[in-house]
């Protein structure tokens, strides 16, 4: 039975000039009350200004009891992994093991390159920084003394130096929270299957999802891992309205305002739905049928109504 997640509108609230967090926390509580399985927060420093995801999720953790709490997605390359390991461990303690660390490498866009430059990080090195940084986080999450750098299958690590150091606290969940990675290109799918706990893309169409998910699982098998332990997730954007034309207009305006790019281009890159509720239900089901077991929903405005509608659709689908 697919699990359903909800993305808090942190970026949208900042763009609207409403940076207060009370309404965001209320939405998180409402999502839990309606039966959503997870609540998510996006990440950006300067390219798309918004609340810090780990800080905000700590507040959500204190206001909820059941929902999982995830980042959709965090950019670990922008952060020192020793600091990140401590922050995530603390968050997971507050949440009592409910954290999912969704991560990505960021798109190649001028404002994102500027964000990396402002953070003092070389954009072209972001994949290596992410891979090594997450490996260092996992080493620290064991609670055992860590010596870094160390050699690994990918060659010499060495961006950070740690000498006989122990992190405390460790995460609530032994070994740390599951790490889900965005990205749908072949190299990303192989890396996810070999190293991580979940696949969390936003670009595959329904027709593309099943074969690409099969690639992830095959990479896990090739690495000697059990593919059934991995999670296939999907990040989806919806504008639900009985008037299909109005829904389409709403979605296009939302995407263009959010990203500053043409909606037609964005809808090719990020899977989105605009239209009546019945069509939304069929669309969500098609991803579940293709193998996605956790669907994270981003709504194009009108969050209270969308939450209610999605919860009803879930009941109708028998999820």
Q: H/E series, N to C?
A: EHHEHEHEHHEEEEEHEHEHHEHEH
Relevant CATH superfamily: Luciferase-like domain
| Strand composition percent | 15-25%
Summarize the amount of helix as a percent range: 40-55%
Can you tell me the CATH topology?
Answer: TIM Barrel
Number of helices: 12
Report on the structure:
It is built from twelve helices and 13 strands. It is globular and about 60 Å long. Helix 8 links the parallel strand 10 and strand 11 (231-240). The protein has 319 residues and is of the alpha/beta class. The longest helix has 17 residues, at 206-222. The strands form three sheets. It has an eight-stranded parallel β-barrel with strand order 1-2-3-4-9-10-11-13, surrounded by seven helices. The protein has a two-stranded antiparallel ribbon with strand order 5-8. Helix 11 packs across helix 12.
Question: What topology emerges from the helices and strands here?
Answer:
Blueprint: E1 3-7, H1 10-15, H2 22-33, E2 38-41, H3 53-63, E3 68-71, H4 81-95, E4 99-103, H5 110-118, H6 126-141, E5 146-148, E6 151-152, E7 155-156, E8 162-165, E9 179-181, H7 186-195, E10 198-199, H8 206-222, E11 231-240, H9 244-259, H10 263-269, E12 272-275, H11 277-289, E13 294-299, H12 303-317
Parallel strand pairs: 1-2, 1-13, 2-3, 3-4, 4-9, 9-10, 10-11, 11-12, 11-13
Antiparallel strand pairs: 5-8, 6-7
């Amino acid at each position: 039975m697919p699990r359903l997640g909800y993305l808090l509108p942190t970026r949208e609230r900042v763009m609207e000039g409403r940076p207060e967090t009370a309404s965001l926390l209320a939405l998180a509580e409402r999502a839990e009350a309606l039966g959503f399985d997870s609540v998510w927060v996006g990440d950006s420093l300067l390219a798309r200004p918004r609340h810090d995801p780990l800080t905000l999720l700590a507040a959500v953790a204190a206001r909820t009891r059941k929902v999982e709490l995830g980042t959709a997605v965090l950019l670990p390359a922008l952060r020192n992994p020793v600091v990140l390991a401590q922050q995530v461990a603390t968050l997971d303690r507050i949440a009592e093991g409910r954290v999912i660390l969704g991560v990505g490498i960021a798109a190649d866009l001028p404002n994102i390159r500027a964000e990396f430059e402002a953070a003092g990080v070389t954009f072209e090195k972001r994949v290596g920084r992410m891979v090594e940084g997450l490996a260092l986080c996992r080493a620290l999450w064991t609670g055992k003394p860590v010596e870094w750098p160390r050699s690994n299958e990918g060659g010499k690590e060495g961006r950070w130096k740690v000498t006989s150091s122990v992190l405390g606290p460790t995460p609530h969940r032994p070994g740390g929270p599951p790490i889900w990675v965005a990205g749908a290109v072949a190299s990303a799918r192989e890396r996810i299957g070999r190293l991580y706990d979940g696949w969390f893309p936003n670009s595959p169409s329904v027709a593309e999802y099943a074969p690409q998910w099969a690639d992830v699982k095959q990479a896990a098998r090739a690495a000697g891992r059990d593919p059934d332990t991995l999670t296939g997730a999907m990040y989806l954007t919806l504008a639900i309205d009985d008037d299909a034309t109005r829904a389409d207009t709403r979605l296009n305006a939302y995407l263009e305002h959010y990203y500053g790019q043409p909606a037609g281009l964005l809808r090719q890159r990020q899977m989105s739905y605009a239209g009546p509720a019945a069509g939304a239900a069929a669309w969500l089901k098609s991803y579940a049928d293709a193998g996605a077991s956790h669907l994270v929903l981003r709504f194009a405005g009108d969050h209270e109504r969308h939450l209610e509608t999605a919860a009803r659709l879930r009941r109708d689908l028998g999820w």
